[in-house]
Amino acid sequence: MYRYDEFDHTVVAERVLQFRGQVARRLSGDLTEDEFKPLRLMNGLYLQLHAYMLRVAIPYGMLSSRQMRKLAFVARRYDKGYGHFTTRQNIQYNWPRLDEAADILDELATVEMHAIQTSGNTIRNVTADPFAGVAADEIEDPRIYAEIIRQWSTLHPEFSFLPRKFKIAVTGAPHDRAAIKTHDIGIALKRGPDGETGFEVFVGGGQGRTPVVAKSIRGFLPKRDLLSYLEAILRVYNQLGRRDNIYKARIKILVNEIGVEKFTALVEEEWRHLRDGALALPDDEIARIKAYFASPAYLDIPGDVPEFDSKLLTDPAFGNWVGSNVTEHKVPGYAIVTVSLKPEGGIPGDATAEQMEAIADLADAFSFGELRVTKDQNLVLADIRKSDLFALWQGLRAHGLETPNAGLLTDIIACPGLDYCSLANARSIPIAQRIGTRFGDLDRLRDIGDITLNISGCINACAHHHVGNIGILGVDKKGTEFYQVTLGGSADENTTIGDIVGPAFGEDDIVDAIETIVDTYLGLRTDGETFIDTYRRVGLAPFKETLYAAR
Amino acid sequence: MTSHAVTANRLTDGQVVYLTPARTWSEKLHASQLAEAGDDANALLQSAQASVEARLVVEPYLIPVDTDATDGQTPRAVGRRETIRAAGPSVRLDLGHQAAQE
């Protein structure tokens, strides 16, 4: 994975020192809260319901075991023994003190981590496919380009005060595991007319109160032009994006208001001036970054592993876990493992310091010391030898990390909601916990099959409810929590925004409603159909009928 | 008339606090000074401004409070948001002010 150069180290170290001074001036009274707030937000420090919250960047979700141990250390020493992995592949701490915030950032800097641009109207942490570099269907490793974008966008002076926050995601595979079409810019690696690799560029995706699927504005962009083209998009947005109304400030609104053709023409015109300038990416620079993501030293081993096959037969619990949490690797004899952070009745995305350390140890023992955070709030060990899967599973089981539900109904994505977040209108986590418990039976879960369920506690949609196959949005009605349901959303290469099913459900009714939806699907599906297949075939009407007929 | 208390977050650690009759800040809602809605409540909020200037708390605001049904006296937060602020996360009873009060 990428290692900081001298420049990166200096930038981060100077930034921590600067923030330490800003905190000291706030505490001494030289800065008012109004003056200090934008400064702390630039360093990822929010003030939430119960305490400050620190959001730490994990570029495209990649972590070394050393970094994970440091995250565990911070959780234990400066927080309350746990952290929360987010839908943007980051980690949040819920209880840091202001007067220790710079100390935390100093600790993180020792392992090449920081909280820069995890808040504010800047280009945020770039996200990517958590199976990058190992997916069997990959065209090219997206982390190379995510890293190049990270370097370009970090402290970019022209884009430090955009109209609104800005999110970029990259996928290297045709099957989109990075939800690129829900981002301000989505980038898909693809093959060009002559077989060379380049990018398709999508713009204007987003969630929040105005969910929009990003539109393709360039079918093929050569690699050398990546940064100049991004710069052109950002320039057009920075100049024309609205600054008078926070709800209309994202690029999706601009694209919709002036139309995608006009927007594209403006970008192309801007790009004409930029494309052959300093931002043109030389091949040797791409090669230099690519070297950081070279494949680890895989062994030349057979794809068939008899001892693995026999364990599958003799240990059904192991077999169940393999069935849902293990994915095919591009190299024979290896596998990709998703470590679920969704135990039954647990808090989606939370991990204790002990679990973080355990998984760091397992990464060292079995996966070249690396791991990834997913937008689904899980972790990934990307390079496990099939012959090690059983030992890994036992290691995970010793720490409650063996939940066999990746991609299944109880693999619920949930924001912190009103239990922590000052923006939330309703709680998310308790609903996730109750649904998790209701559908705890593994046979039933496996019968229901692949499905996504996303719960956001407010319209900001941090849990991406618009693009969940089942989406739940918490709303407040005169001090009481209600939950609006959407169906048919998806966040892959066929991204769709879910349809609102009807009036919202009360706290006591929402879990029954989800069960009704699932039972309706089970009654309607044909052989081999997943939930989204059935929904796309039958539409909203049958679900509406079963949900509201009895009311 | 609805009673109100003044709440804020403490500057150094962000913890939820309430303004007391002694014009100090307590982590316990039941230690808070109550005032009737209107001029009294606004005056109470105004009195919190000194603590903002003294860098003790940030963003003080008024919240309506109820009294506990059992004793008719103990102030209780109204609404889910302030109930959760007063207690801690409803999904982690071991954290927040509720943990200390057990």
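The first strand of chain B starts at residue 3 and ends at 10.
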